[in-house]
TrEMBL record:
The active site is at residue 401. GO terms for molecular function: rRNA (uridine-C5-)-methyltransferase activity. Residues 1-36 form the TRAM domain. GO terms for biological process: rRNA base methylation. Belongs to the class I-like SAM-binding methyltransferase superfamily. RNA M5U methyltransferase family. The gene is trmA. S-adenosyl-L-methionine binds at residues 275, 304, 325, 374. Signal peptide: none annotated. The keyword Transferase applies. This is tRNA (Uracil-5-)-methyltransferase. Gene3D superfamilies: 2.40.50.1070, Nucleic acid-binding proteins, Vaccinia Virus protein VP39. Keywords: Methyltransferase, S-adenosyl-L-methionine, Transferase. InterPro entries: MeTrfase_TrmA_AS (IPR030390), MeTrfase_TrmA_CS (IPR030391), NA-bd_OB-fold (IPR012340), SAM-dependent_MTases_sf (IPR029063), TRAM_dom (IPR002792), U5_MeTrfase_fam (IPR010280).
């Protein structure tokens, strides 16, 4: 097994001695699940959350934060070497989070009439199939089971107060929690946005309209929890949980919240995308702007621009910014955000980057001096990588939430580009997720 990478599920940390059942065993890597721990690593620390082990969030909390950061840094380096087979300069040390708990501005809780119960809880209930309500998070890989969350450490208060107030009211008044398998029940989701500006948005998603019950619950919430600046509800009669094709209705407040990155203000509605960790989002964008090396005369393309936040963030240092994004609503938000921040040199286009980025588009908007690309986890489509090689901008800043696909794409771009700088940023403490920013310079 020397030198072979094994991906192990089941909360294993370096230094643990554990039996692993392999589910895949390839030449260079294997995959498996922890079976029996013989000894625990001395690196382990006491988890801070009562839901640790069952909840899918904060899975790395048994490691000290400095160790988590070290492993993330190592992971980026491994991917660049093993997947990309790349040569690169020393990476900058990972930018760890100053706030390692309560760092998310958005959380979505799910109502379910099927709480996930441990064996002990089932035994204690004394019934064969005990049924309980839950308001919490889905158990990984069990689509119809939800872990009832009492206290979550991912978001600032009043997150727990709001969740527990809604739950207690619902139980007291026998309101029905959704049954995911049967697709029945009234209460479906509770989506919270708590911003660094202090604004709080709550969106209660229900299966169908029950005006009296809805008003009673929402009024109770407003009366019990101070500081809710916007309260909405959304009726979702569909099978899936997505609200993107639905119309949230404003019950109280202005219908959106505002978040700040440096002195830029972003309007966030119930359907808007925004970086979930505002604190580290700002750090990430500063690195991106710094790597772009702008002097005020550059044409910058912001590919996969979402609601335009990177483009807007770098706009004062650029001659002009062109943002491209698949989701039309995100582009509408980008335009609105640019206008609200008096950014007049940014233009945004809705569509697939592969379709939009053709020769005519670049001819019309100008040859890029810098391309910033921030694709989803799957990375860039091969066609786009090929196009970027053809367009050959002097600099590319590649922002990635998945260093494995980033390494694959960098290997392709390596045909014309050299890696100049690498900066990992930790956006999600206590998880395996890692964001990585790479500056590429054209060789010729
Ligand atoms: C990682 S997010 C980046 C968002 C943005 N840069 C930010 O910092 O908020 C990736 C974005 O790519 C968009 N996207 C995915 N596939 C796309 C495609 N083929 N063409 C254009 N945009 C796409 C997604 O909708 C999403 O907004």
């Amino acid at each position: 097994m020397d030198g072979k990478v094994i991906f192990i599920e089941g909360g294993v940390v370096p230094g643990d001695v554990v039996d692993v059942r392999l589910s895949k065993n390839k030449k260079d890597w294997a995959e498996g699940k922890a079976q029996l721990f013989h000894t625990y690593s001395p690196q382990r620390v006491e988890p801070f959350c009562e839901h640790f082990g069952l909840c899918g969030g904060c899975k790395w909390q048994m490691l000290p934060y400095e160790k988590q950061a070290e492993y993330k840094q190592q992971q980026v380096e491994d991917h660049l070497r093993r997947i990309g087979h790349l040569e690169f300069p020393d990476m900058y040390p990972i930018l760890g989070a100053s706030k390692t708990r309560r760092y998310r501005n958005k959380l979505e809780f799910t109502f379910s009439n099927k709480a996930y119960l441990t064996d002990d809880e089932i035994r204690a209930a004394g019934e064969e199939w005990p049924k309980r309500n839950a308001l919490g998070f889905h158990i990984p890989r069990l689509f119809d089971k939800v872990l009832d969350i009492r206290t979550c450490h991912l978001q600032e208060e009043p997150a727990n107060l709001i969740k527990n107030t809604v739950r207690e009211w619902a139980e007291k008044h026998s309101l029905s929690f959704y049954d995911i398998r049967r697709q029945e029940g009234w209460l479906r989701n509770l989506v919270l946005r708590i911003c660094t500006t202090g604004e709080v948005m709550v969106n209660l998603v229900i299966h169908y309209e029950d005006k009296a019950a809805r008003i009673a619950l929402l009024d109770h919430l407003l009366a019990t929890v101070p500081g809710i600046t916007t309260l909405l509800y959304t009726i979702n009669p569909k099978k899936n949980d997505s609200i993107f094709d639905l119309e949230p209705k404003v019950y109280a407040g202005k219908g959106y919240v505002e978040e700040k990155l440096e002195d830029f203000t972003f309007k966030i509605g119930p359907k808007s995308f925004f970086q979930t960790n505002t604190y580290q989002g700002e750090v990430l964008y500063k690195v991106t702007r710094d790597f772009a090396g702008l002097t005020g005369s550059e044409v910058v393309y912001d590919l996969y621009c979402g609601t335009g936040s990177i483009g807007i963030f770098v706009s004062r240092q650029a001659k002009k910014v062109i943002g491209i994004e698949l989701i039309r609503e995100a582009i509408d938000d980008a335009k609105e955000n640019a206008a609200a921040n008096a950014v007049n040199n940014a233009t945004f286009f809705a569509g697939d980057v592969i379709d939009i980025c053709d020769d005519a588009f670049f001819a019309e908007h100008g040859a890029p001096d810098v391309i910033i690309t921030d694709p989803p986890r799957a990375g860039m489509h091969e066609k786009l990588t090929a196009k970027l090689l053809e367009v050959a901008a002097p600099r590319i800043v590649y922002v990635s939430c998945n260093p494995a696909t980033q390494a694959r794409d960098l290997a392709l771009l390596n045909e014309k580009y050299t890696i100049e700088k690498i900066q990992p940023v930790d956006m999600f403490p206590h998880t395996h997720h890692i964001e990585n920013v790479v500056l590429l310079k054209r060789r010729y």
